[in-house]
Amino acid sequence: MTTPHAGPHPMLTLTDEVAQALRDGAPVVALESTIISHGMPYPDNVTMATEVEDIIRAAGAVPATIAVLDGRPRIGLGAEDLELLASHGDVAKVSVRDLPYVVARGAHGATTVAATMRLAALAGIRTFVTGGLGGVHRGAQQSFDESADLTELGTTDVAVVSAGVKSILDIGLTLERLETLGVPVLVHGSDEFPSFYSRSSGHEAPMRVDTAADIAAVMDAKWRLGIAGGVVVANPIPAEDEIPADEIGVIIERALADMDAQGIHGKDATPYLLGRIVEITGGASLTANIALVHHNARLGAAIAQEYAALRH
Question: Is 113 left (phi over 0), alpha (psi -120 to 50) or beta?
Fold first, then answer.
Protein backbone atom coordinates (compact mmCIF):
# COMPACT_ATOMS: atom_id res chain seq x y z
CA MET A 1 0.00 0.00 0.00
CA THR A 2 1.08 3.57 -0.61
CA THR A 3 0.14 6.68 1.29
CA PRO A 4 -0.07 9.76 -0.97
CA HIS A 5 1.57 12.93 0.35
CA ALA A 6 3.15 11.08 3.29
CA GLY A 7 6.51 12.31 4.44
CA PRO A 8 8.36 15.61 4.30
CA HIS A 9 7.65 16.53 0.66
CA PRO A 10 4.20 16.73 -0.97
CA MET A 11 5.35 15.42 -4.36
CA LEU A 12 6.57 12.10 -2.93
CA THR A 13 4.50 8.97 -2.39
CA LEU A 14 5.78 6.72 0.37
CA THR A 15 4.73 3.21 1.27
CA ASP A 16 3.19 2.90 4.72
CA GLU A 17 6.22 0.87 5.82
CA VAL A 18 8.72 3.54 4.79
CA ALA A 19 6.62 6.43 6.10
CA GLN A 20 6.28 4.78 9.52
CA ALA A 21 10.01 4.00 9.71
CA LEU A 22 10.92 7.60 8.93
CA ARG A 23 8.49 8.92 11.54
CA ASP A 24 10.00 6.56 14.11
CA GLY A 25 13.60 7.40 13.24
CA ALA A 26 14.14 3.75 12.30
CA PRO A 27 16.87 2.70 9.82
CA VAL A 28 15.84 3.04 6.16
CA VAL A 29 17.95 2.10 3.12
CA ALA A 30 17.26 3.65 -0.29
CA LEU A 31 17.65 1.51 -3.42
CA GLU A 32 17.86 2.67 -7.03
CA SER A 33 15.76 1.31 -9.87
CA THR A 34 17.95 1.76 -12.96
CA ILE A 35 19.69 -1.49 -12.04
CA ILE A 36 16.25 -3.15 -12.35
CA SER A 37 15.10 -1.59 -15.63
CA HIS A 38 18.40 -1.03 -17.43
CA GLY A 39 21.08 -2.99 -15.58
CA MET A 40 19.95 -6.61 -15.71
CA PRO A 41 17.82 -8.83 -17.96
CA TYR A 42 14.31 -9.99 -16.99
CA PRO A 43 13.51 -11.97 -14.81
CA ASP A 44 16.90 -11.81 -13.04
CA ASN A 45 16.27 -8.13 -12.35
CA VAL A 46 13.01 -8.57 -10.41
CA THR A 47 14.44 -11.54 -8.51
CA MET A 48 17.49 -9.48 -7.55
CA ALA A 49 15.35 -6.51 -6.45
CA THR A 50 13.16 -8.71 -4.25
CA GLU A 51 16.16 -10.51 -2.73
CA VAL A 52 17.89 -7.23 -1.89
CA GLU A 53 14.80 -5.89 -0.14
CA ASP A 54 14.54 -9.16 1.82
CA ILE A 55 18.22 -8.95 2.86
CA ILE A 56 17.72 -5.41 4.19
CA ARG A 57 14.60 -6.37 6.13
CA ALA A 58 16.31 -9.45 7.58
CA ALA A 59 19.15 -7.20 8.75
CA GLY A 60 16.75 -4.97 10.68
CA ALA A 61 16.26 -2.04 8.31
CA VAL A 62 13.48 -0.94 5.95
CA PRO A 63 14.16 -0.97 2.18
CA ALA A 64 12.92 1.92 0.05
CA THR A 65 13.29 1.23 -3.67
CA ILE A 66 12.90 4.56 -5.50
CA ALA A 67 11.39 5.18 -8.95
CA VAL A 68 8.94 7.40 -10.80
CA LEU A 69 5.65 5.71 -11.74
CA ASP A 70 2.94 7.57 -13.67
CA GLY A 71 4.88 10.76 -13.03
CA ARG A 72 4.91 10.30 -9.26
CA PRO A 73 8.21 9.93 -7.37
CA ARG A 74 7.82 6.80 -5.26
CA ILE A 75 9.77 6.05 -2.10
CA GLY A 76 9.26 2.33 -1.58
CA LEU A 77 7.60 -0.04 -4.05
CA GLY A 78 5.27 -3.01 -3.89
CA ALA A 79 5.73 -6.32 -5.70
CA GLU A 80 3.58 -5.20 -8.66
CA ASP A 81 5.62 -2.00 -8.98
CA LEU A 82 8.88 -3.96 -9.08
CA GLU A 83 7.45 -6.28 -11.73
CA LEU A 84 6.41 -3.26 -13.84
CA LEU A 85 9.88 -1.72 -13.64
CA ALA A 86 11.52 -5.04 -14.50
CA SER A 87 9.37 -5.89 -17.53
CA HIS A 88 7.65 -2.76 -18.92
CA GLY A 89 8.95 -1.69 -22.31
CA ASP A 90 8.73 2.06 -21.73
CA VAL A 91 10.61 2.97 -18.57
CA ALA A 92 12.95 5.93 -19.02
CA LYS A 93 16.41 6.05 -17.47
CA VAL A 94 16.06 9.08 -15.20
CA SER A 95 18.90 11.18 -13.86
CA VAL A 96 18.35 14.44 -11.98
CA ARG A 97 17.99 16.52 -15.15
CA ASP A 98 15.26 14.15 -16.39
CA LEU A 99 13.13 14.19 -13.23
CA PRO A 100 11.07 17.33 -14.07
CA TYR A 101 10.35 16.08 -17.60
CA VAL A 102 9.27 12.57 -16.56
CA VAL A 103 7.19 13.87 -13.64
CA ALA A 104 5.48 16.54 -15.78
CA ARG A 105 4.61 14.01 -18.49
CA GLY A 106 3.22 11.44 -16.06
CA ALA A 107 5.65 8.82 -17.32
CA HIS A 108 7.53 5.88 -15.78
CA GLY A 109 11.18 6.35 -14.84
CA ALA A 110 13.90 4.21 -13.30
CA THR A 111 16.18 6.41 -11.20
CA THR A 112 19.96 6.49 -11.53
CA VAL A 113 22.28 6.91 -8.54
CA ALA A 114 22.05 10.71 -8.87
CA ALA A 115 18.25 10.86 -9.09
CA THR A 116 17.84 8.29 -6.32
CA MET A 117 20.12 10.35 -4.08
CA ARG A 118 18.07 13.48 -4.71
CA LEU A 119 14.73 11.80 -4.00
CA ALA A 120 16.09 9.93 -0.98
CA ALA A 121 17.33 13.21 0.48
CA LEU A 122 13.90 14.80 -0.08
CA ALA A 123 12.37 11.92 1.86
CA GLY A 124 14.91 12.20 4.68
CA ILE A 125 16.83 8.98 3.92
CA ARG A 126 20.60 9.14 4.48
CA THR A 127 21.81 5.66 3.44
CA PHE A 128 21.60 4.32 -0.11
CA VAL A 129 22.74 1.00 -1.57
CA THR A 130 23.60 0.44 -5.23
CA GLY A 131 25.83 -1.82 -7.33
CA GLY A 132 28.45 0.50 -8.84
CA LEU A 133 28.97 4.24 -8.97
CA GLY A 134 29.00 6.27 -12.14
CA GLY A 135 32.00 8.46 -12.80
CA VAL A 136 34.37 9.79 -15.41
CA HIS A 137 34.17 7.82 -18.64
CA ARG A 138 37.28 6.64 -20.44
CA GLY A 139 38.27 9.24 -23.00
CA ALA A 140 36.50 12.02 -21.07
CA GLN A 141 39.40 14.34 -21.91
CA GLN A 142 37.82 14.56 -25.39
CA SER A 143 34.16 13.71 -24.76
CA PHE A 144 33.64 15.48 -21.40
CA ASP A 145 31.47 12.49 -20.50
CA GLU A 146 31.07 12.41 -16.72
CA SER A 147 28.23 10.92 -14.72
CA ALA A 148 25.87 13.23 -12.85
CA ASP A 149 26.45 10.85 -9.91
CA LEU A 150 29.63 12.84 -9.20
CA THR A 151 28.07 16.28 -9.03
CA GLU A 152 25.20 14.90 -6.97
CA LEU A 153 27.68 13.43 -4.49
CA GLY A 154 29.16 16.91 -4.20
CA THR A 155 25.84 18.45 -3.12
CA THR A 156 23.40 15.91 -1.65
CA ASP A 157 23.69 14.56 1.91
CA VAL A 158 23.41 10.80 1.30
CA ALA A 159 25.94 8.02 1.89
CA VAL A 160 26.19 5.71 -1.13
CA VAL A 161 27.28 2.11 -0.60
CA SER A 162 28.66 0.51 -3.77
CA ALA A 163 31.29 -1.99 -4.93
CA GLY A 164 33.30 0.96 -6.21
CA VAL A 165 33.21 2.79 -9.51
CA LYS A 166 31.95 0.71 -12.43
CA SER A 167 35.07 -0.85 -13.97
CA ILE A 168 34.06 0.28 -17.46
CA LEU A 169 34.96 3.83 -16.35
CA ASP A 170 38.23 5.67 -15.65
CA ILE A 171 38.62 4.94 -11.94
CA GLY A 172 41.66 7.15 -11.40
CA LEU A 173 40.04 10.24 -12.90
CA THR A 174 36.82 9.53 -10.99
CA LEU A 175 38.71 9.48 -7.69
CA GLU A 176 40.35 12.78 -8.64
CA ARG A 177 36.96 14.37 -9.33
CA LEU A 178 35.54 13.10 -6.03
CA GLU A 179 38.49 14.70 -4.23
CA THR A 180 37.88 18.00 -6.01
CA LEU A 181 34.20 17.84 -5.05
CA GLY A 182 35.11 17.29 -1.40
CA VAL A 183 33.48 13.85 -1.17
CA PRO A 184 34.95 11.47 1.45
CA VAL A 185 35.73 8.11 -0.16
CA LEU A 186 35.69 5.33 2.45
CA VAL A 187 36.79 1.79 1.58
CA HIS A 188 35.36 -0.90 3.84
CA GLY A 189 37.92 -3.40 5.10
CA SER A 190 40.59 -2.85 2.43
CA ASP A 191 43.60 -0.67 1.69
CA GLU A 192 42.80 -0.72 -2.06
CA PHE A 193 39.88 0.88 -3.85
CA PRO A 194 37.73 -1.83 -5.52
CA SER A 195 36.66 -1.92 -9.16
CA PHE A 196 33.13 -3.37 -9.13
CA TYR A 197 33.65 -6.94 -10.44
CA SER A 198 37.12 -7.05 -8.80
CA ARG A 199 38.52 -6.33 -5.36
CA SER A 200 41.54 -4.55 -6.82
CA SER A 201 41.89 -1.49 -9.05
CA GLY A 202 45.51 -0.45 -8.64
CA HIS A 203 44.36 2.63 -6.69
CA GLU A 204 44.96 3.10 -2.99
CA ALA A 205 41.97 3.48 -0.67
CA PRO A 206 41.61 7.23 0.07
CA MET A 207 40.29 6.40 3.57
CA ARG A 208 39.95 2.94 5.13
CA VAL A 209 37.15 2.02 7.57
CA ASP A 210 36.54 -1.38 9.11
CA THR A 211 33.06 -1.27 10.66
CA ALA A 212 29.59 0.08 9.93
CA ALA A 213 29.87 2.12 13.14
CA ASP A 214 33.02 3.82 11.79
CA ILE A 215 31.17 4.72 8.59
CA ALA A 216 28.14 6.10 10.45
CA ALA A 217 30.47 8.20 12.62
CA VAL A 218 32.01 9.80 9.50
CA MET A 219 28.55 10.55 8.09
CA ASP A 220 27.44 12.10 11.38
CA ALA A 221 30.59 14.18 11.76
CA LYS A 222 30.46 15.45 8.17
CA TRP A 223 26.89 16.66 8.29
CA ARG A 224 27.06 18.02 11.84
CA LEU A 225 30.04 20.09 10.66
CA GLY A 226 27.74 21.55 8.01
CA ILE A 227 29.74 20.07 5.12
CA ALA A 228 27.21 19.46 2.36
CA GLY A 229 27.36 16.51 0.02
CA GLY A 230 27.50 12.75 0.06
CA VAL A 231 29.85 10.06 1.30
CA VAL A 232 31.15 7.25 -0.92
CA VAL A 233 31.34 3.86 0.81
CA ALA A 234 33.22 1.39 -1.39
CA ASN A 235 32.55 -2.20 -0.33
CA PRO A 236 34.78 -4.70 -2.20
CA ILE A 237 33.00 -7.68 -3.75
CA PRO A 238 33.61 -10.87 -1.70
CA ALA A 239 36.74 -12.73 -2.84
CA GLU A 240 34.79 -15.85 -3.76
CA ASP A 241 32.53 -13.86 -6.12
CA GLU A 242 35.01 -11.58 -7.88
CA ILE A 243 36.23 -11.71 -11.47
CA PRO A 244 39.99 -10.95 -11.34
CA ALA A 245 40.92 -7.49 -12.60
CA ASP A 246 43.22 -8.69 -15.39
CA GLU A 247 40.54 -11.08 -16.68
CA ILE A 248 37.67 -8.59 -16.67
CA GLY A 249 39.96 -5.88 -18.09
CA VAL A 250 40.35 -7.72 -21.40
CA ILE A 251 36.59 -8.25 -21.61
CA ILE A 252 35.86 -4.57 -20.92
CA GLU A 253 38.25 -3.48 -23.69
CA ARG A 254 36.42 -5.76 -26.12
CA ALA A 255 33.03 -4.39 -25.04
CA LEU A 256 34.28 -0.81 -25.39
CA ALA A 257 35.52 -1.53 -28.91
CA ASP A 258 32.15 -3.03 -29.83
CA MET A 259 30.38 0.04 -28.43
CA ASP A 260 32.58 2.42 -30.41
CA ALA A 261 31.97 0.41 -33.58
CA GLN A 262 28.22 0.85 -33.10
CA GLY A 263 28.46 4.56 -32.27
CA ILE A 264 26.77 4.21 -28.89
CA HIS A 265 27.44 6.99 -26.36
CA GLY A 266 25.88 9.13 -23.61
CA LYS A 267 23.27 7.63 -21.32
CA ASP A 268 23.02 4.51 -23.51
CA ALA A 269 26.70 3.63 -22.98
CA THR A 270 26.57 2.03 -19.53
CA PRO A 271 23.51 -0.21 -20.16
CA TYR A 272 25.06 -1.37 -23.45
CA LEU A 273 28.44 -2.12 -21.91
CA LEU A 274 27.02 -4.01 -18.93
CA GLY A 275 24.82 -6.08 -21.25
CA ARG A 276 27.68 -6.78 -23.64
CA ILE A 277 29.93 -7.88 -20.78
CA VAL A 278 27.23 -10.32 -19.65
CA GLU A 279 27.20 -11.77 -23.18
CA ILE A 280 30.99 -12.06 -23.42
CA THR A 281 31.35 -13.65 -19.97
CA GLY A 282 28.51 -16.11 -20.57
CA GLY A 283 26.60 -14.69 -17.60
CA ALA A 284 29.50 -14.72 -15.11
CA SER A 285 29.45 -10.93 -14.79
CA LEU A 286 25.72 -11.00 -13.98
CA THR A 287 26.34 -13.54 -11.22
CA ALA A 288 29.08 -11.30 -9.81
CA ASN A 289 26.85 -8.24 -10.09
CA ILE A 290 24.07 -9.88 -8.08
CA ALA A 291 26.54 -11.10 -5.44
CA LEU A 292 28.02 -7.65 -4.91
CA VAL A 293 24.61 -6.00 -4.62
CA HIS A 294 23.62 -8.53 -1.94
CA HIS A 295 26.91 -7.81 -0.13
CA ASN A 296 26.30 -4.06 -0.32
CA ALA A 297 22.75 -4.46 1.01
CA ARG A 298 24.00 -6.18 4.15
CA LEU A 299 26.54 -3.41 4.81
CA GLY A 300 24.04 -0.68 3.98
CA ALA A 301 21.50 -2.04 6.48
CA ALA A 302 24.19 -2.12 9.18
CA ILE A 303 25.24 1.47 8.41
CA ALA A 304 21.62 2.68 8.51
CA GLN A 305 21.18 1.06 11.92
CA GLU A 306 24.36 2.61 13.31
CA TYR A 307 23.48 6.04 11.93
CA ALA A 308 19.94 5.87 13.32
CA ALA A 309 21.37 4.97 16.72
CA LEU A 310 23.72 7.97 16.60
CA ARG A 311 20.94 10.35 15.68
CA HIS A 312 18.45 9.09 18.25
Answer: alpha
Position 240 scores a pLDDT of: 97
Has 93 been annotated as catalytic? no
**Predicted local distance difference test score (pLDDT) of residue 4:** 44
The type of residue at 107 is A
Low-confidence ranges of the chain (pLDDT < 50): 1-6
| Residue of 17, 32, 192, 242 marked active site | 32
Taking the model in full, what pTM does it have? 0.93
From the list 17, 146, 166, 222, the catalytic residue is 166
Residue 242: active-site member: no
- Quick one: CA dihedral 12, 42, 136, 132, positive or negative? positive
Nearest to 214 by CA among 195, 231, 196, 238: 231
Comparing CA positions, the residue from 85, 126, 127, 130 lying closest to residue 112 is 130
